[in-house]
Every structure is written in structure tokens, then in C-alpha cells.
Write a structure and sequence with these properties.
Distance between the termini: 13 Å
Number of helices: 9
CATH class: Mainly Alpha
CATH superfamily: MetI-like
CATH topology: MetI-like fold
Shape: elongated
Structural class: mainly alpha
CATH architecture: Orthogonal Bundle
Helix content: over 70%
Radius of gyration: 22 Å
Strand content: under 5%
């Protein structure tokens, strides 16, 4: 029951992400200093920020950057990871040795450190954050998928399939991918929340999304200097991050338990 509710809410969030530009009550970028720190009203359901911008409109548009970017990162990195894991699993020799050594070196660092290092080289910006996190997640996932495929490779039914003449793409499609997909789904749902937090964290310290883009981490960074007088500026984006991560965690945990 809880999982269904979470999936329903996540589906609603997906619809909001798609149609956010058409459902926002006000222009999220419009600055009007005569409307600074307005209380919630029909025109501004969550009030306005320090520049007179509608907080609700910025929360809804910010969902595209926070959740949408994280989803893109997860989809791209999982696709690359499956491709790399497949190549390393079925190719022997120098190719496999190179990837094994790279994994041993790079996985000695947390993924967030790898991403931080790349962003420090490339510079701040959403595009560079996406590239850095895709690289970090690909390194992590490809090793997991490789280990899963190696375990499957020793199964009797895989050996029987090879003896019966099933090889190449057909073997991968029929016997490997279906058994790896549950692991992929679990990782996507559990780590999607982590990636959202990482994007928000990079924006908060000035390395991610840059103003005036209304990403949730950037909104918290902009509102922190007013947190004593107008705590709503950080409460609303903070709650948004918390709720999204909680929903994704619940879906991931329930799926893993099943």
C-alpha cells in the first residue's frame, strides 16, 4: 500500500516536471523588489522571496533541474555501465585488465569525491555537474553490473545455453539482462535520491546550478542569509528535497525487499 502511494506521488511529480512551465502561477524569474517577502496569498501561494519572485513557481520549475537532472544522470550512467560491464565480462585479455585496474583505482574514492574533482577541473555549472556525476556513477555501477554478470556466467543454465548454441546478443538479451534489471531498478530508485542531494549540494556551495536558475539547492543558498527573519525561503525547498528523497527511498526499499 505504501509503495503504491509513493509511486502515485512520484507519477504526479513526473507530470509536474513535464508541464511545470504551463502550471506555474507566476513567472519564476520576474524580479519585483516592491513585492519582497510577501506572505502567502492567492496570487503567491507560498509567498515571495528577497527579490519579489514567486516561491511556488520557483519550486515547481526547480523540480525540473533537481529531479530532472538527477533522472538524466541515472539513465545515462546506467546505460553506459551496462555497456561497459558487458564488454568487460565477455572480452578477455588487455581490455578486461585495464578496466579492472581502473575500477580498483577509481573506486578507492567515494563517488562524490570523483565528481567534485571533475567539477573543480571543468568549472561550475549544471552541465559540468551532470558530466561529473555521470562519470562517477558509471564507474560505480559498471563494477556492480560486471560482478553480477560474472556470477551469472558461472550458472549451469548459462553453460547449458552456450552448449545449445545461444551466444552473443541473444544470450545477453535472454539470460543476462533480465537478471541484471532488478538490480538496476533498485539502484536507480535508491541512488536517484542521493544524486538529487549531490546536485543540491554542489549548487549550495556554488559549483552547480548558477543564479537565477531556481534549482532547490541554489534556492537554499540564496535564502540562507534571511533564514532568521524569513525561514520559508529555505524551508520550502528543503522540504521539497526531503519529500522527493523519502519517496524514492521508500520505493527502492520496498522493491529490494520484494
Amino acid at each position: 500500500m505504501i509503495k503504491r502511494i509513493c509511486l502515485l506521488l512520484l507519477s504526479l511529480i513526473g507530470i509536474i516536471i513535464l508541464f511545470a512551465p504551463w502550471i506555474v502561477p507566476n513567472d519564476p524569474y520576474l524580479i519585483d523588489t516592491t513585492k519582497r517577502f510577501f506572505n502567502p496569498s492567492w496570487q503567491y501561494p507560498l509567498g515571495t522571496d528577497h527579490l519579489g519572485r514567486c516561491i511556488l513557481s520557483r519550486i515547481l520549475i526547480g523540480m525540473r533541474y533537481s529531479v530532472g537532472s538527477a533522472l538524466i544522470i541515472q539513465l545515462i550512467s546506467s546505460g553506459f555501465s551496462l555497456a561497459i560491464a558487458t564488454v568487460v565480462t565477455f572480452r578477455q585479455g588487455i581490455t578486461k585488465r585495464i578496466f579492472i585496474r581502473l575500477w580498483d583505482i577509481l573506486l578507492s574514492f567515494p563517488t562524490i569525491i570523483l565528481a567534485f574533482s571533475l567539477i573543480s577541473v571543468f568549472g561550475p555549472g549544471l552541465k559540468n555537474v551532470v558530466i561529473a556525476l555521470v562519470f562517477a556513477q558509471t564507474i560505480y555501477y559498471s563494477r556492480i553490473f560486471h560482478n553480477a554478470m560474472i556470477s551469472l556466467n558461472e550458472m549451469n543454465y548459462i553453460k547449458a545455453a552456450r552448449i545449445s548454441g545461444t551466444t552473443g546478443i541473444k544470450l545477453l538479451k535472454t539470460h543476462f539482462i533480465p537478471h541484471v534489471l532488478p538490480t538496476l531498478y533498485t539502484l536507480l530508485s535508491l541512488d536517484l535520491g542521493k544524486v538529487i542531494l549531490e546536485i543540491a549540494g554542489f549548487s549550495f556551495i556554488g559549483l552547480g546550478v548558477q543564479a537565477p536558475i531556481p534549482e532547490w539547492g541554489m534556492m537554499i543558498e540564496e535564502g540562507k542569509q534571511y533564514m532568521r527573519q524569513y525561514p520559508a525561503l529555505i524551508i520550502y525547498p528543503g522540504i521539497s528535497i526531503f519529500m522527493i528523497v523519502l519517496l524514492l527511498h521508500q520505493v527502492g526499499v520496498k522493491k529490494h525487499a520484494n
